[in-house]
Amino acid sequence: MAEALPGPRMRxxxxxxxxxxxxxxxxxxxxxxxxxxxxxxxxxMAAAGLGDDLLLANEVLDCRPLGALxxxxxxxxxxxxxxxxxxxxxxxxxxxxxxxxxxxxxxxxPDDAGRIADEARRRGLxxxxxxxxxxxxxxxxxxxxxxxxxEEAMAQLVRAHEDVGGDVVSAGGTGTYDINRWATxxxxxxxxxxxxxxxxLQLPFRQALFLWSTVISTSPGWAVADAGLKSLGxxxxxxxxxxxxxxxCSDEHITFAPEPGREVKVGDRVxxxxxxxxxxxxxxxxxxxxxxxxxxxxxxxxxxxx
Length: 306
Ligand SMILES: Cc1ncc(COP(=O)(O)O)c(C=O)c1O
What we know:
Layout (H helix, E strand, L loop, with lengths): L19 H9 L4 E4 L2 H9 L5 E4 L7 H4 L6 E5 L2 H9 L4 E5 L14 H10 L3 E6 L11 H22 L3 E4 L13 E2 L9 H4 L11 E9 L2 E4 L14 E2 L2 E7 L2 E6 L10 E5 L3 H5 L4 E6 L2 E7 L6
Parallel strand pairs: 1-2, 2-3, 3-4, 4-5, 5-6, 6-7
Antiparallel strand pairs: 8-9, 8-13, 9-12, 10-13, 11-12, 14-15
Helix pairs in contact: 5-6
Bound molecules: pyridoxal-5'-phosphate (PLP).
């Protein structure tokens, strides 16, 4: 990614990995600007010395922990009078106007962006520009469709930017990192670890995140591994499992059918590939770095929580 989008062209989103050690690797690869989704991520990144330019690409109503960070540059997304007031009252100095570009989530109507910016300036905030996350597009498997819909989404962001001003147009994700040519910076996160949903898009990023689980029970025709809904983000569907077909996940169990001819014993380790990286990582306290079978380091998932 650092070759495709060097330095500040890429503002890595830490929400996917929630790990300052991995963010440190991204910094070593030349990225000093980061995107966060929670106050906790912002505070943790600043404490880790990675606070050169942190964007909270999300709306929050208590910005005081951010205003108290004097060793970091903090920018917060705003899309309403309430979030502007929260930023100003909380001691935040810089904001981006968050624009709805088609994902029904946060972001103001593009037609309101200029008004939001005026209000932010009236409250003494520096408006650095706009952001608009095309989250409804990033995961589309058909690349032509992604190309078409990114253009549509970014036309709205560009229009809003004309009314807002500032240098920053922040958007994009892993699925659109090489398609979104309107944004001045791309907020991708999943690329660092990947998941099976993004694996379908034929992007040049390999799966790095796996769950090592242990077979705890076998029956004729199926086996059960000790991972499940409490260790996997499931909103993108079932995980996949090396050497077997997943039937279903329950709280602490994955029931799977071993590949024909494969004998599975209690105590065997099976490698599970998550379907959605962000919520999966958020369930775990540490990630182990492995080379082959050797654990070469253990990284705390230290940006968990709110
Ligand atoms: C605001 C925002 N920007 C960017 C991203 C990019 O993420 P990804 O790399 O998973 O496409 C996300 C993901 O959820 C997001 O919420």
